[in-house]
Amino acid sequence: MINRVYIFDTTLRDGEQSPGVSLSMEEKIEIGRALVDLGVDVIEAGFPVASPGDFQAVQTLARELRGVEIAALARANPKDIETAWEALKEAENPRIHTFIATSDIHLQYKLRKSREEVLQLAQEAVRWARKFTPNVEFSAEDATRSDREYLAEVVVAVAQAGARVINIPDTVGYTVPQEYYDLIVFLVERLRQAGFGEALDKGELRLSVHCHNDLGLAVANSVAALLAGARQVECTINGIGERAGNAAMEEIVMILRTRGDYFQKALGTALETGIDTRKIVPTSQLVSRLTGMFVQPNKAIVGANAFAHESGIHQHGVIAHRLTYEIMDRESVGWSGSAIVLGKHSGRHAVDYKLRSLGWKLSREALSRVFERFRTEIKDVLRRIPDEYLEGILYDEYLSEN
Ligand code: KIV
Ligand code: ZN
């Protein structure tokens, strides 16, 4: 199987469905451009039939953005699909993403249709979409709560109808990694039995995953699915999205990059993406600012504390060698500045290190004096101590007398 993982970014569609988020057209274009720079493979720009605003957003992004596939969402009916195409048609590389639910819960309470009817609608939807473009993705909404045998039937049927990408969403964030892994292995097997082995191996047909974070497992489930053979992952910047959000792109990308050794051992090859990881933090900050969804400080990769060391023991270790407490290079994801953060747990080594990085090399005695005052003054006062505060102590205690 191919070792390239395709990043399908749905920040502007599922991400924008986060409660309270509403982006203007200019903001969508700014985020779209940042996503292209970041190196995503597909941008899901919206759900054109949902509103005139969504239609216009997809149309504008399709016209403006180059060097990326633009996807638009459509339910499995001709009107949605035609509207999606109308919005998409000027894109350099358009993709129609059509979906229908496959779980009995959705069939009974939402769609009020039988399994046979849904199977037929799914196949027809792919055929309708292919009248406009060969680049068609099908999603089996609520796949993880669907009957496995029935889901496999739908998956094979849409592959036969010509879908290039088949997405297996964990719509309500219900599955757990081993279960999801087994499901993807099972579906790959069924596709191989149906004659799609070569297409899967060459990447001409791809299984995709789309995980929500209701149980905090969206990233873990996505990674499990990649280990099982999925080669497209749907995700958002900062993990924003409906309810508890979607799988966070930055985490998935950095897991693949940081643990290439593990994937090499498990699959015989590391998995690669086209993401320029140095653009991760700037993109995260842009999305956070424009959506108003602040990133928690301890969020992996992009949280303000993700690479910060405050405790004396950790600071001492990192100053001696960063590998002691760092598994990634902070610059590699776009952070700049020092990882050493001064606070009430900081020790003498950190104060010395900070002063040196500010250009001050102190004698032992002077350092002791500055450190003593630093320790006494900041105790229980502030959380993060700005560099200027330390320099202020230095001036007061030492330089002002000399
Ligand atoms: O969560 C979901 O199932 C979706 C689909 C429309 C792909 O967002
Ligand atoms: Zn979703």
Automatic annotation (TrEMBL):
<feature type="domain" description="Pyruvate carboxyltransferase">
    <location>
        <begin position="5"/>
        <end position="281"/>
    </location>
</feature>
<dbReference type="GO" id="GO:0009098">
    <property type="term" value="P:L-leucine biosynthetic process"/>
</dbReference>
<keyword id="KW-0479">Metal-binding</keyword>
<feature type="binding site">
    <location>
        <position position="212"/>
    </location>
    <ligand>
        <name>Mn(2+)</name>
    </ligand>
</feature>
<keyword id="KW-0432">Leucine biosynthesis</keyword>
<feature type="binding site">
    <location>
        <position position="14"/>
    </location>
    <ligand>
        <name>Mn(2+)</name>
    </ligand>
</feature>
<keyword id="KW-0028">Amino-acid biosynthesis</keyword>
<comment type="similarity">
    <text>Belongs to the alpha-IPM synthase/homocitrate synthase family. LeuA type 1 subfamily.</text>
</comment>
<keyword id="KW-0464">Manganese</keyword>
<keyword id="KW-0012">Acyltransferase</keyword>
<dbReference type="GO" id="GO:0005737">
    <property type="term" value="C:cytoplasm"/>
</dbReference>
<comment type="pathway">
    <text>Amino-acid biosynthesis; L-leucine biosynthesis; L-leucine from 3-methyl-2-oxobutanoate: step 1/4.</text>
</comment>
<comment type="function">
    <text>Catalyzes the condensation of the acetyl group of acetyl-CoA with 3-methyl-2-oxobutanoate (2-ketoisovalerate) to form 3-carboxy-3-hydroxy-4-methylpentanoate (2-isopropylmalate).</text>
</comment>
<feature type="binding site">
    <location>
        <position position="210"/>
    </location>
    <ligand>
        <name>Mn(2+)</name>
    </ligand>
</feature>
<keyword id="KW-0808">Transferase</keyword>
<keyword id="KW-0963">Cytoplasm</keyword>
<keyword id="KW-0100">Branched-chain amino acid biosynthesis</keyword>
<dbReference type="GO" id="GO:0003985">
    <property type="term" value="F:acetyl-CoA C-acetyltransferase activity"/>
</dbReference>
<feature type="binding site">
    <location>
        <position position="246"/>
    </location>
    <ligand>
        <name>Mn(2+)</name>
    </ligand>
</feature>
<comment type="subunit">
    <text>Homodimer.</text>
</comment>
<dbReference type="GO" id="GO:0030145">
    <property type="term" value="F:manganese ion binding"/>
</dbReference>
<dbReference type="GO" id="GO:0003852">
    <property type="term" value="F:2-isopropylmalate synthase activity"/>
</dbReference>
<protein>
    <recommendedName>
        <fullName>2-isopropylmalate synthase</fullName>
        <ecNumber>2.3.3.13</ecNumber>
    </recommendedName>
</protein>
